[in-house]
């Protein structure tokens, strides 16, 4: 199929996915099929099957509940029906590794099992001269459960420095002591009368449970634990050869959500009182020494940052530990070695094991590799489909870029995004508006994302019993309740407009997966906990100057493709990938002090920088030297690192600048516009075409200015809403690109192509225009209202005549109405027109335009569409159909829901251009 047809009607591969929350096997096969077919018809390309938790139907006896759990015959029977339907409709199903998350398996139900997640606890006792007796068991330990004494040490308190939040110690005083594990006692005598501390380190499983299975979360650092998950799949979910064949024929993703693994459940899962407990695994001391070359036991006190391994928004690697040694660089380097070991273990014993198994069944591994202090870019090397999310990344383009370097240098064709997961907004979250789903998606696409998975849709349970029955109200059981985001399925009026939204997304995803990425700059960044805490929320100075960029880490510089070659006369890094034209070595924000610090480097990284510079790659070093060593070994070779820095900066193509000068770089770029612009760009390049996705990131400021893009051939404007392709004529064309004037409404996107395409629509001839205001409308609303059961909806009709457009909540009798409204007006056109821009001003939530019976695709951001081809001289009927969420209707029953603006708010304008 030609490019033009594929752009107009992208196939299933490029269509967005839906997260699908299921109530265990308490489902009907006919309803499963109906819901899949409804998603297909709505333009979705797949669904992520998520066993949320078992929600029994009212007609099921409690003693039968076990028959409906994850991996049961009834669950497998439901999955058989889902897979058969999905395969028939070329609809891809993805499956979570276990029931809900964090990852657990029904094969592992004992919370004291060695394969469950572990925490390391510390008990401290101060003494002078002699300690003899029982070791302290800290309050963070559950004394009723198994525990294991891992190590015992002593250290002398420092009298000169106070770094630790509890105490600071002399590094050379630390001693690891023998101990009796049987009676948990120690005897040791100091050689002086100074104050000492005895540390006892205890390991215990965290008792963190997976809500859906009430099974303990597995140890993500243990291959045996990962194999327990795999064995359950093999023995329970795939034991039937026919079902196994269906899974493999479907060929979807095996999906893992973010790493919400707690080292302790003291105080609960979320936002508990921070505790000094760290993540552990039984073999960690052995694995650490094998990988880092020294014994971690003496330095264990420096690891205990309070609350770091609890799921909370307050985690901060830059905080001081409870117990520090006198040398700050040593403390941080030891912690970095510990985090690197966690990264190694989760990569080798968990992620890569899952990936290999997924491949053996024709599945890919999609994983959100963040949430713990690990190097998430390193983890992505064993992931087929990296994924970020609205919640953890806060829809911040800068945060999304943290993974884009690994996506591009790791040759990952798809970068996925869990779209719309935000706290609250149940039945209120919309597609449009300043915080709507389109805004969230555009923010992610600007950072390199090219696949979205909507969060989400609940299965339409016909009846419910058990603890959730009290919330089984109209319009049905929402498995996320009011906690997160919206229901995007067919229980809401906005679902009726899904196809135009999914068509738009599909065209975007199609374009953003073509050819190769082309990115101006690679920014070196090494840290272990980098979701968003130290990222800039606003556009960076580099983006404001028109540069595109990725963040890359040491592991990416070790790849075979991290080499310099000459492309179009310029040295670039990774020529067959993003082709970065320069490397920026940036400073990092310390989350505790809020001060900028130098980059974290080691001897190997500095030598790589020198090699790249020697090959001609421009390197821009931001700030003065201010280097930070990565590992304990690096801290001991800091002089070598500093000397390598001096060697690096002796190259003529290495520039040391301050942060304020970042926007003044002279490195060439693929996209350019006015200085301090708010337009983000993404460039994809095929053998014959350059494609530019442009996005006005401002939520309140229109962009009007000159745009310059590089490439060869005829420039085209590709309409992402209609699928039309128009050749652009009014521009300044050069051999390497073209310059043109562009206007973009706040939040609007444009797609420019350079190459040779077949246009499907001619560019309008701009002439003097006349403007008409359309104020008077007839409004007919199909109101969605509660029926006799929680899952039944009745439609009642309301009509009114409007002399001025106002929100429904301001119309008497329609204050709490939700549904689909049809506005209609008649317009007299006195002459033929070549261009007629209908601007409906504003609508909530989505709107369709119908002109003389012809349905047009309205731009849902600018609210404009050219209706000239469908107008004729004389009287014309213009209709606008608006679909809403159910929020206002639900405010009848929930007084905490304050009605919001629904309908077409206008002002509606029609700008006409004469054809002659």
Automatic annotation (TrEMBL):
Pfam families in UniProt: Glyco_hydro_106 (PF17132)
SUPFAM superfamilies documented for this protein: Galactose-binding domain-like
Domain of life, per lineage: Bacteria
InterPro entries reported in the protein's UniProt record: Galactose-bd-like_sf, Ulvan_degrading_GH
UniProt protein name: Alpha-L-rhamnosidase-like protein
């Amino acid at each position: 199929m030609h490019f033009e047809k594929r752009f107009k009607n992208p196939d299933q591969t490029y269509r967005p996915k839906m997260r699908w929350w299921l109530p265990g096997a308490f489902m009907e096969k006919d309803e499963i099929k109906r819901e899949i077919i409804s998603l297909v018809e709505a333009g979705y390309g797949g669904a992520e099957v998520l066993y949320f938790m078992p929600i029994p139907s009212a007609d099921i006896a409690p003693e039968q509940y076990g028959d409906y759990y994850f991996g049961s015959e009834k669950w497998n029977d439901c999955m058989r029906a889902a897979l058969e339907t999905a395969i028939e409709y070329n609809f891809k199903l993805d499956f979570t590794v276990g029931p809900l998350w964090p990852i657990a398996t029904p094969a592992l139900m004992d919370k004291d099992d060695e394969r469950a997640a572990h925490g390391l606890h510390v008990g401290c006792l101060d003494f002078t001269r002699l300690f003899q007796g029982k070791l302290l068991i800290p309050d963070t330990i559950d004394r009723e459960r198994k525990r294991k004494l891992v190590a015992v040490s002593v250290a002398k308190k420092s009298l000169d420095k106070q770094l630790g939040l509890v105490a600071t110690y002399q590094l050379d005083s630390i001693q690891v002591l023998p101990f009796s594990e049987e009676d948990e006692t120690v005897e040791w005598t100091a050689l002086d009368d100074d104050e000492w501390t005895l540390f006892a380190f205890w390991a215990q499983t965290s008792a963190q449970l997976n809500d859906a299975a009430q099974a303990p979360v597995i140890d993500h650092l243990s291959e045996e634990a990962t194999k327990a998950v795999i064995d359950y799949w093999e023995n329970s979910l795939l034991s039937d050869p026919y079902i196994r064949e269906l899974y493999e024929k479907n060929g979807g993703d095996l999906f893992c959500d973010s790493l919400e693994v707690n080292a302790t459940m003291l105080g609960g899962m979320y936002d508990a009182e921070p505790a000094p407990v760290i993540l552990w695994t039984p073999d960690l001391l052995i694995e650490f020494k094998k990988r880092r070359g020294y014994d971690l036991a003496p330095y264990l006190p420096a690891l205990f940052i309070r609350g770091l391994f609890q799921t909370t928004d307050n985690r901060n690697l830059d905080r001081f530990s409870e117990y520090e040694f006198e040398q700050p660089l040593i403390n941080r380097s030891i912690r970095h070695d510990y985090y690197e070991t966690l990264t190694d273990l989760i990569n080798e014993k968990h992620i890569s094991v899952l990936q290999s198994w997924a491949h053996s069944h024709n599945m890919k591994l999609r994983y959100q590799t963040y949430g713990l202090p690990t190097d998430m870019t390193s983890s992505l090397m064993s992931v087929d489909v990296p994924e970020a999310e609205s919640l953890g990344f806060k829809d911040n383009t800068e945060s999304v870029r943290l993974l884009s370097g690994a996506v591009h240098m790791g040759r990952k064709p798809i970068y996925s995004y869990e779209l719309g997961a935000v706290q609250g907004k149940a039945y209120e979250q919309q597609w449009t508006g300043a915080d709507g789903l389109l805004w969230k998606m555009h923010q992610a696409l600007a950072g390199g994302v090219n696949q979205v998975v909507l969060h989400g849709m609940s299965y339409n349970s016909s009846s419910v019993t058990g603890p959730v029955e009290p919330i089984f109200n109209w319009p049905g059981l929402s498995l996320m309740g009011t906690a997160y985001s919206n229901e995007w399925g067919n229980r809401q009026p906005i679902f009726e407009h899904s196809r135009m939204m999914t068509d738009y997304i599909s065209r975007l995803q199609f374009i953003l997966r073509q050819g190769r990425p082309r990115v101006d700059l690679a920014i070196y960044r090494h840290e272990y906990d980098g979701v968003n805490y130290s990222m800039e929320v606003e556009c960076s100075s580099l983006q404001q100057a028109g540069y595109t960029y990725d963040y890359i880490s040491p592991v990416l510089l070790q790849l075979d493709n991290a080499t310099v070659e000459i492309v179009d006369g310029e040295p670039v890094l990774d020529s067959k990938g993003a082709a970065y034209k320069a490397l920026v070595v940036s400073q990092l924000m310390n989350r505790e002090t809020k001060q900028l610090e130098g980059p974290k480097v080691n001897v190997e990284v500095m030598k790589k920088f020198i090699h790249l510079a020697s090959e001609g790659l421009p390197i821009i070093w931001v700030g003065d030297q201010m280097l930070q060593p990565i590992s304990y070994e690096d801290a001991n070779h800091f002089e070598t690192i500093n000397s390598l820095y001096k060697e690096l900066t002796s190259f003529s193509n290495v520039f040391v600048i301050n942060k304020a000068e970042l926007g003044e770089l002279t490195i060439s770029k693929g996209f350019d516009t006015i200085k301090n612009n708010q337009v983000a760009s993404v460039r994809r390049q095929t053998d014959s075409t350059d494609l530019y996705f442009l996005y006005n990131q401002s939520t309140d400021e229109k962009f009007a200015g000159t745009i310059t893009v590089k490439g060869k051939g005829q420039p085209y404007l590709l309409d992402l809403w209609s699928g039309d392709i128009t050749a652009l004529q009014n521009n300044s064309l050069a051999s390497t690109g073209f310059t043109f004037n562009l206007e973009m409404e706040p939040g609007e996107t444009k797609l420019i192509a350079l190459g040779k395409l077949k246009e499907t629509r001619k560019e309008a001839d701009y002439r003097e225009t006349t403007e008409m205001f359309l104020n008077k409308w007839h409004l007919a609303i199909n109101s969605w209202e509660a029926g006799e059961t929680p899952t039944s909806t009745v439609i009642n009709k309301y009509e009114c005549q409007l002399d001025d457009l106002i929100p429904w909540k301001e119309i008497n009798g329609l204050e709490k109405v939700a549904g689909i409204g049809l506005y209609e007006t008649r317009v007299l056109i006195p002459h033929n027109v070549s261009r007629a821009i209908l601007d409906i001003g504003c609508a909530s939530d989505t709107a369709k335009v119908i002109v003389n019976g012809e349905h047009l695709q309205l731009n849902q951001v600018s609210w404009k569409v050219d209706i000239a081809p469908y107008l004729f001289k004389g009287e014309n009927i213009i209709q606008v159909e608006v679909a809403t969420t159910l929020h206002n209707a639900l405010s009848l029953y929930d007084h905490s829901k304050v009605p919001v603006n629904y309908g077409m708010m206008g002002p509606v304008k029609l700008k006409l251009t004469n054809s002659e």
